[in-house]
């Protein structure tokens, strides 16, 4: 046992013993006395009645919290959540319905402790559906009943038994079993204890965000391409410019049918205007210094396409 584990054990032991001594100071309530106190609290909001009701159920909180100590969380925290649960129960408890406070409060105490465990046990959210919650709090218990180790994959027979017992699918069982078998690991842990290295796992993560210099270069390149395109569009007549913009620079592109009706020409003629406009644009762009500086025809053609469609996609 490490020093930190020993300190935690001693701290938990002290809290548990101190809490036990404290709760034993309060006697359990008889049915009639509980009914009277609950009526006082419900009707008159009597703080003394509330204190007596809560203190008489500290044993119940402790008993329920002890049942969840296997999740590796501080017992003091579990007990605190149990206290919140019983306070929530007392806000809604109606003694006139004929059942005892312990029967009603038990479900609220469990609900608060379970939610605390789900929120604290993992950085990744689990237990977000009723089936997952049921699996989370019962899978380990059922595996122990079946004699299966915590870190062992379940065989078909075991999964069938658990699925029938909890009314869940085999896939849900596999996912939860894998999740419980692989706890979270800190990115601050050293990658190796050998050789005196101090690199942490987080040092190996790649930063995929673009740095400031790259962003400036990208914007500058985009502005140049846009300027080339805007200057080249000046060689087109109004009809060619309208067809090219609506067919190549719009998202989604206008259909040949729509342009045919608007311009009073055939669809084939619209297609010809579009192709002619693109050829004229290509000729002008080929002579532009940004494109002409490229070494060969293939690279120049690729640059033209890159400029044209790069602007198109952004727009």
* Beta-strand residue fraction: under 5%
Report the radius of gyration as a whole number of Å: 36 Å
- What is the helix content? 55-70%
Enter the CATH topology name of the largest domain: Four Helix Bundle (Hemerythrin (Met), subunit A)
Number of strands: 0
How many DSSP helices?
15
Query: Architecture of the largest domain, according to CATH?
Result: Up-down Bundle
Query: How would you sum up the major sheet?
Result: none
Indicate how many domains the architecture comprises. Answer: 3
Average predicted confidence as pLDDT: 77
Tags for this entry?
15 helices; single chain; mainly alpha; disordered C terminus; Four Helix Bundle (Hemerythrin (Met), subunit A); disordered N terminus; Arc Repressor Mutant, subunit A
Describe the structure.
Helices cover 68% and strands 0% of the residues. The chain has helices spanning 3-23, 31-44, 47-55, 58-66, 75-92, 101-121, 130-145, 156-166, 170-181, 212-232, 238-248, 256-263, 267-286, 289-292, 297-314. It folds into three domains: 1-121, Four Helix Bundle (Hemerythrin (Met), subunit A), CATH 1.20.120; 124-182; 213-314, Arc Repressor Mutant, subunit A (Orthogonal Bundle), CATH 1.10.10.10. The protein is elongated, with a radius of gyration of 36 Å. The longest helix has 21 residues, at 3-23. It contains 15 helices and no strands. It is mostly helical and 315 residues long. Helix 10 (212-232) crosses helix 15, helix 11 crosses helix 13 and helix 12 (256-263) packs across helix 13.
